What we know:
By secondary structure, this protein is of the alpha/beta class. The chain has one domain: Class I glutamine amidotransferase (GATase) domain (Rossmann fold, 3-Layer(aba) Sandwich). The protein has 5 helices and 11 strands; from the N terminus they run βαββαβαββαβββββα. The strands form 2 sheets. A 9-stranded mixed sheet has the order 2-1-3-4-11-10-9-6-7, with helices on both faces. The protein has a two-stranded antiparallel ribbon with strand order 5-8. β10 (206-211) and β11 form a beta hairpin. α2 crosses α3. The longest helix is centred in the N-terminal third of the chain and has 19 residues, at 28-46. The chain is globular, with a radius of gyration of 17 Å.
Amino acid sequence: MQNPAGPRGVRPRIGIPVRLTNSSDPDPRVGEANALFDYIVDLVRDGGGDPVLLTAAEEPGRLDGVILPGGGDLDPRLYGEEPGPACYDVNRDQDSLDLAVARQAIAAGVPVLGICRGHQLLNVLYGGTLVQDMDQGSVPHREPAPVHGAGPWAWHEVGIAGGSKVAALYGAAGALTVKIASGHHQAVARVADGLMVTGVADDGTVEALEDPQRWVASVQWHPEALELPAGERQAPFRAFVDVCRNTPASA
């Protein structure tokens, strides 16, 4: 997995690990996650990148970046807990694929962006833990009963730190507030050593993380949500493609 810094105008190859659970699963959240995966692929392509669908970490050819998309819950055994009753679509093959892709990308020094499950996966990969099922609080993070085919979003604001990688994805140098599409029942509990918090909801939920030593960042929300205005959906993906185009790999 390499990332030779190339001239602007080249279409960076962005790896995205495929979703392994079929949309025919009776849990409507699985179909939603698979639809969101397709949106990400389209947004990468429209943003100037070439999406590469990964079925294994050892993908032939070159990758210039990786996006870790949303999906079912990580196996809590990965962070030292037994699965609770609220966990859904736990798939060890999916965990193995996503973790292997993430590890290889980080080792190669190519940019990595985690989205929802991908945000949680990066925290676990770096050694952090998750809340298996969030209590109802002052900020809505998910609709109570998502329906297949409809956006299961709760909408709230997130404060993003100035100078952060996520702020740059939204075209800002300073701090900003973004209204986001939220649909998750798990969240970051203990933040991993090696990651810093760069986005927080009003109730304290960790909404964005980044590695200060390399281009690795993540968001708990869904910037690809179809209900967002087209320009707002496209902007962070186009910015990430530019990051991948201009970030040299590690030596």
